[in-house]
């Protein structure tokens, strides 16, 4: 059947209507006309795939990567990069609107180089090399190159270094690699990584999570430092770093507070955070607990002048969200890797009297539908 794509929605599929029923079609851009086939039919909506593109968008281009469409790493390389940013901004605006969230200022978009940016990968060891999973499949497709990868990773794919090290030392199918500058770390061969952001060194386990787009992450760090000057804490203020991970934000923002409490449930990450914050040990406290357990801890009854919340994709737990909603902390900074859960949590904070005064979309993952955003809430 023939459809016209209306708009792109969270996740990167385009929405179309057939007899009033919503149909989600990946691989299309808004305004494109295509012949589609329904592959999964539900009561109120359906999923489809493109059989033939009949009328293409003016923003459609030839993808840089020859594996685009097979490899599941990218989903938007068929669109010029400027248009990708427009689509993401519109998606974020729509998500906020549906959640009833009011933004005081227009959403700003911060981006970087759309190629050669990605410093972190989880590759799969294959018989003759390494690969990434195919789109909508658990089967990996072998990579000889990856144009979005940072230079050391791209070179390691081309010359076979990454595959050779994986074949020799990796006991699991999946393994992690990370690079910064000229350095390349690989799981099993290496354990600890160390990057420099805003002139400060931060270490972490190569198997653990760390932001994949270091140039854009540095822009976020710089912006947060600027924001502390506008919406900051007193010179002797206290700071709450919630979902602290390895303490990255506490290290980067350490000039702006006299005491800091880091909350993290992952003991391995918290151990690394203690090492990263050794230069600031006199003003750092560490709380090993889950977000649900936080309200029962003595540290939760202290007064905080500001907080930074950096939750996983599912957002804050209901218990943690309720605590923050009633906390009366003057300034909350919420760094989100899922705008849907950000909007959900923002709606609750808004009901509790917080105002979302600034929202910035950070394009950490060009050529994908993935979005990260930072919202500043005050009361």
Blueprint of the fold:
Blueprint: E1 2-4, E2 7-8, E3 14-18, E4 21-25, E5 33-41, E6 45-55, H1 81-99, E7 108-110, E8 120-126, E9 129-133, E10 140-142, H2 151-158, H3 161-169, E11 174-180, E12 183-186, E13 192-197, E14 200-205, H4 214-230, E15 238-242, H5 248-252, E16 259-264, H6 267-276, E17 284-288, E18 306-309, H7 318-325, E19 331-336, H8 339-351, E20 355-362, E21 372-378
Parallel strand pairs: 4-6, 7-20, 15-16, 15-18, 16-17, 18-19
Antiparallel strand pairs: 1-5, 2-3, 3-4, 5-6, 8-9, 8-11, 9-10, 11-12, 13-14, 19-21, 20-21
Helix pairs in contact: 1-8, 7-8
Protein name: TRAM domain-containing protein
Active site: 337
InterPro entries: NA-bd_OB-fold, SAM-dependent_MTases_sf, TRAM_dom, U5_MeTrfase_fam
Helix content: 10-25%
CATH architecture descriptor text of the largest domain: 3-Layer(aba) Sandwich
> Outline, from the CA principal axes?
globular
Number of domains: 3
Helix tally equals 8
H/E topology pattern: EEEEEEHEEEEHHEEEEHEHEHEEHEHEE
User: Residue ranges: pLDDT <50 for 5 or more in a row?
Assistant: none
Number of strands: 21
**CATH level-4 homologous superfamily of the largest domain:** Vaccinia Virus protein VP39
State the strand order across the main sheet. 7-20-21-19-18-15-16-17
Q: Give the C-level CATH assignment of the largest domain.
A: Alpha Beta
Return the average pLDDT rounded to an integer: 94
Strand content: 25-35%
By CATH, the topology of the largest domain is Rossmann fold
Distance between the termini: 51 Å
Return the structural class. Answer: alpha/beta
Q: Write down the Rg.
A: 22 Å
Question: Main beta sheet: strand number and arrangement?
Answer: 8 strands, mixed
């Amino acid at each position: 059947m023939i459809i016209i794509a209306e708009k792109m929605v969270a996740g990167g599929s385009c929405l179309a209507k057939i007899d009033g029923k919503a149909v989600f079609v990946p691989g299309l851009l808004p305004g494109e006309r295509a012949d589609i086939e329904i592959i999964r039919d539900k009561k109120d909506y359906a999923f489809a795939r493109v059989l033939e593109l009949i009328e293409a968008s003016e923003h459609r281009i030839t993808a840089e990567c020859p594996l685009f469409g097979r490899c599941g790493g990218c989903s938007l390389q068929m669109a010029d990069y400027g248009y990708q940013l427009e689509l993401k901004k519109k998606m974020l605006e729509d998500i906020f609107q549906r959640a009833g969230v009011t933004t005081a200022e227009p959403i700003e978009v911060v981006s970087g180089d759309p190629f050669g940016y990605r410093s972190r990968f989880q590759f799969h060891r294959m018989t003759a090399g390494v690969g990434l999973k195919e789109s909508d499949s658990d089967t990996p497709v072998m990579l000889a190159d990856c144009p979005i990868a940072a230079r050391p990773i791209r070179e390691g794919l081309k010359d076979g270094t990454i595959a050779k090290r994986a074949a020799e030392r990796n006991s699991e199918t999946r393994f992690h690699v990370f690079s910064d500058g000229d350095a390349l770390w690989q799981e099993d061969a290496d354990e600890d990584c160390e990057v420099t952001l805003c002139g400060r060194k931060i270490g972490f386990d190569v198997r653990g999570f760390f932001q994949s787009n270091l140039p854009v992450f540095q822009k976020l760090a710089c912006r947060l430092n600027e924001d502390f000057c506008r919406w900051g804490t007193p010179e002797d203020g206290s700071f709450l770093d919630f979902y602290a991970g390895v303490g990255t934000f506490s290290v980067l923002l350490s000039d702006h507070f006299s005491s800091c409490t880091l909350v993290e449930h992952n003991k391995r990450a918290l151990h690394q955070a203690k090492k990263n914050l050794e230069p600031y040990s006199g003003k750092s406290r560490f709380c090993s607990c889950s977000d649900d357990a936080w309200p029962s801890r003595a540290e939760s009854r202290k007064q905080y002048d500001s907080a930074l919340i950096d939750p996983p994709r599912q957002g804050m737990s209901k218990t943690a969200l309720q605590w923050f909603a009633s906390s009366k902390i003057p300034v909350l900074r919420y760094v989100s890797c899922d705008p849907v859960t950000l909007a959900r949590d923002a709606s609750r904070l808004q009901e509790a009297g917080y105002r979302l005064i600034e929202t910035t979309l950070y394009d950490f993952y060009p050529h994908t539908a993935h979005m990260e955003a930072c919202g500043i809430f005050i009361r």
